[in-house]
Structures are given as C-alpha cells and as structure tokens.
Amino acid sequence: MQGVKYRNMMGQVGLFIITLGIYGIYWFYVTADEMKYLAKDEAASPALWTVLLFVPLVGIYSIYKYSELFQKISSESLNRWILFILWIVFSPAVWFIVQMELNKKATINRPTA
User: Can you give the pTM of this predicted structure?
Assistant: First the structure.
C-alpha cells in the first residue's frame, strides 16, 4: 500500500451498480487497507475482515474492526459505535462518510508537480 487514492463518488456508485455490488466488497478491502496505512496499525487485517464478511454473524466483527480503524484516522474523531450502527442501519451513509474522509486525506497527501 502506497498511500490513499482519491475516488469519485459518482463513479463508485456506477461501478457498484454495473458490478452488481461486487465493487462494494473491493471497496471495503481497499479502504480498510488505506486506513491501515494511515493509522500505521500493523495488527489490522483488511483481507481477513473482507473474507469474514461472508460468514454469518462473524461479519459483524469485521464491520466493528473497520469502524474502529476509521475512528483512528478520522479528522473529526467519529466514534466507532456510531459508524458501526450506521453500517447496520444504513450502510450507504458509511460509504459516503468513509470515502469523503479518505478523499480529504488523499488531497492533503497528494504530491504536487
């Protein structure tokens, strides 16, 4: 992982629809990996969390760990429990919140030419 990539929100919605949701799984893994890089958290395991999403009830653990990692990198210190509940109630809100935060980080850390 070499930093954080800026992603267009509308492009992501299009990819999600075109791939019938598969892009959402890819997005979960890639953003967790980017947050691991930003938080310098060697214990985080985005690949394992992504696989665990497919295991009933254990997938909830993955969502919690993702939320916990987001709390570490969030500039607004969004509480992990708020994000976790949003995952359960209305996951598109999480997608928007997380991607906006990562886009901010990508813009800040973007090298200038």
Answer: 0.86
> What is the rounded distance in angstroms from the CA atom of residue 89 to the CA atom of residue 69?
19
pLDDT (tens digit, 9 = 90+) per residue, 12-49? 999 999 999 999 999 999 999 999 999 899 999 999 99
User: Is 60 inside any structural domain?
Assistant: yes
Q: What is the pLDDT of residue 75?
A: 77
Cα maximum dimension of the chain: 47
Contact of 73 with 38, CB cutoff 8 Å:
yes
**Residues 109, 4 contacting (CB under 8 angstroms):** yes
The residue whose two tokens read 């990539």 is 5
Number of domains, the chain: 1
